[in-house]
Amino acid sequence: MFAAYAARIDRDQPLSGLELGERPEPEARPGWTTVSVKAASLNHHDLWSLRGVGLGEESLPMILGCDAAGIDEDGNEVVLHSVIGQSGHGVGPREPRTILTERYQGTFAEKVTVPTWNLLPKPKELSFEEAACLPTAWLTAYRMLFTNAGVRPGDSVLVQGAGGGVATAAIVLGAAAGLRMLATSRDEAKRKRAVELGAEGAYEPGERLPRRVDAVIETVGAATWSHSVKSLKPGGTLVISGATSGPNPQATELNRIFFLELKVVGSTMGGKDELEDLLSFCAARGVRPVIDSVLPLDRAREGFEKMAGGDLFGKVVLTV
User: Fold this and answer.
1) Per-residue b/e over 18-31, b at no fewer than 16 CB within 10 Å?
2) What DSSP state is assigned to residue 109?
3) Is the per-residue pLDDT at 87 higher than 80?
4) Does the first or last residue of the chain, that is N or C, have fewer Cβ atoms within 10 Å of its Cβ?
5) What is the Cα–Cα distance from 64 to 108, expressed in whole angstroms?
6) Which pTM value belongs to this model?
7) pLDDT, tens digit, for every residue of 202-236?
8) Residue 93: which residues within 8 A CB-CB, separation 6 or more?
9) Helix 165-176 and helix 272-285: axis angle, to 10°?
């Protein structure tokens, strides 16, 4: 079957390890289901895999891709929850949880196999392309906002780095849920787009906001950390799920954190129940993932280059 896969690890030039070509079809496993992939979306996790983060040389070649929507063996339209081993279904009792492509072959292929427990019905209201955007970036944003930030309708939330998958998802989901969303971006066009998607205002990184916020959604890391801390109200919450600009900010702002009793919460992915709620929320409220571009699988390299260069707003989707 045709697939996009990591053939080599290169920390400095990750795309040099990306190959497109034939790979063996997945083998049947007890308690697992093979899905014919209709659409899959890119995440920064795929770039990190090519750099060797969470993926060792001994596991190569590894088909990339965490997210997918497709058709199962019984003809049902399904969405994959990409965390394997979270429930113990389909794996040994002592196996740690992993994300697809860390241990098991991923979704950038004609077929993928996952524990049957990991499949959820695709809502008829969502296309395969839309549904394929949800299990990683959008689920991460959903958990950050509604599980870990502790906000409720009417509260204000700052999203750093509008344009990325998680940040874009947070703006759309927060606005749909009645939160007062603010955003930052270095790019004027991305700031304008953030407002079109529901943000009350969009600002330059580091720019003083019109008011302090109840929570910050942080995925940028070192470059925006100080601004995130300074933007919070006393008792506010900073939720972080990534550090694309690096993990070590020049100033940690510890004095502000303890003096203003701020909360810093780490957040990673989300559970199957949260993905089910996210699918239902999107179907019921008419919320749709923001898609930057849709490419056939044999043009996957273009999608990777687009994501690596930061030249996108929303998700890149690959179709099979």
Assistant:
1) bbbeebeebeeeee
2) B
3) no
4) N
5) 6
6) 0.93
7) 999 999 999 999 999 999 999 999 999 999 999 99
8) none
9) 60
Pairing of strands 18-22, 2-6: antiparallel
Is the sign of the CA dihedral 296, 302, 308, 310 positive or negative?
A: negative
What tokens does 286 get? Answer: 């008419």
CB-based contacts of 68: which residues, under 8 Å, 6+ apart? 35, 37, 38, 39, 40, 41, 79, 80, 107, 112, 132, 135
Best CA proximity match to 233, nearest among 202, 198, 259, 206: 259
pLDDT value for 35: 98
CA-based nearest residue to 67, from 295, 293, 317, 298: 317
Helices of type H across the chain:
44-50, 128-131, 139-143, 165-176, 188-196, 225-230, 254-259, 272-285, 300-308
What the block records as the tokens of 57 is: 């040389």
Instruction: Please state, in angstroms and rounded to a whole number, the distance separating the CA atoms of residues 305 and 47.
Output: 10
pLDDT value at residue 302? 97
Q: Mean of the per-residue pLDDT values for the chain?
A: 95
